[in-house]
Amino acid sequence: MTVLLNTLYITTPEAYLRLEGETVCVMIEDEKRLQVPLHHLGAFVLFDHVMLSPALLGRCAEDGRSVVWLNRSGRFRARLEGPVNGNVLLRQAQYRAADDEPKTLAIARASVAGKLRNSRQVLMRGAREIDNPTERDALVQAARLIANQIRKIPQADNLDTLRGLEGDSARIYFDVLPYLMKPSAREAFPFSTRNRRPPRDRFNALISFLYALKLADCRSALETVGLDPQLGFLHAARPGRPALALDLLEEFRAPLCDRLALTLINRGQIQPKDFDEREGGAVLLNDSGRKTVITAYQARKQETLKHPVLDAEVSIGLLAQLQARLLARYLRGDVPHYVPFLNR
């Protein structure tokens, strides 16, 4: 159980949350483990089998308080939503843009350009920090190859071509990403390729969990500004798929999630004991591992950086909100381009 930045994270299976006056009580095996004033909480993120009383669910829906259920690995399962709100005119603009091929392609290009540029920055930063010349050269070469892919983005005249550039760059990126781990950590965190549903090794389990946390933030940010998280531009619309939230996530995968995963490994903050191996080869973070990652993730969100568009210091936790607002401004026609988040 962790309360951070007005979000209550419950990672203990079979926990039960109930309303007691104007407070939330967390019960585990009939024992009250935590009691928090409701007005201090803006959201609940619940892992595995966690239950809420009908009274608490009703109050959250009434107040517009977010409740998200994730499975053990952090994969989205469900979300509680109250009455639909937000700017209907903005959503109309979003739906029109999704039917406008040039506009859809422009937004998708920005999303891919942001992802590739940030991935390249992670590799270049790593190349400056490691001592092994062979591995340094491999990182530099991979960064060059991704730069070549970035230069092709303006000429990509359809989504399939654009997705091909993104996929090729992702393979280049993940091929050399293990070089950013300390050699002493590589045996405990072997990584050869990206895999998921379920992840097959500890590193994939770790980044998948971080992606799931960031995706929840992206979805909340889009809903806050009045956009529909289900209708994206780069990712195809499918029932139950938060396509626009996945579009927004692309900008943050490498600089926020992957780098945090590498930091946790290189500093020894996350260990093999923080993972469980399941039948069939799946590897998942266990309860202690999830708590460690959530704490580090929220601490990272409190750090600040200079936003390249706003030219102002902002907390990392606000980046998804800011990018969602920039996208909304573009869809309304207030600005000529959507500029993705570019980490420096």
Automatic annotation (TrEMBL):
CRISPR (clustered regularly interspaced short palindromic repeat), is an adaptive immune system that provides protection against mobile genetic elements (viruses, transposable elements and conjugative plasmids). CRISPR clusters contain spacers, sequences complementary to antecedent mobile elements, and target invading nucleic acids. CRISPR clusters are transcribed and processed into CRISPR RNA (crRNA). Acts as a dsDNA endonuclease. Involved in the integration of spacer DNA into the CRISPR cassette. Keywords: Antiviral defense, DNA-binding, Endonuclease, Hydrolase, Magnesium, Manganese, Metal-binding, Nuclease. The lineage of its organism: Bacteria, Pseudomonadati, Pseudomonadota, Gammaproteobacteria, Methylococcales. Belongs to the CRISPR-associated endonuclease Cas1 family. Homodimer, forms a heterotetramer with a Cas2 homodimer. The keyword Manganese applies. It is an enzyme of class 3 (hydrolase). It comes from Methylocaldum marinum. GO terms for molecular function: DNA binding; DNA endonuclease activity; hydrolase activity; metal ion binding. Mn(2+) binds at residues 166, 235, 250. This is CRISPR-associated endonuclease Cas1. Its EC number is 3.1.-.-. NCBIfam families: cas1, cas1_DVULG. InterPro entries: Cas1, CRISPR-assoc_Cas1, CRISPR-assoc_Cas1_C, CRISPR-assoc_Cas1_DVULG, CRISPR-assoc_Cas1_N. CDD domains: Cas1_I-C. One of its GO terms (biological process) is maintenance of CRISPR repeat elements. Its cofactor is Mg(2+); Mn(2+). It comes from the Bacteria. It holds the Pfam family Cas_Cas1.
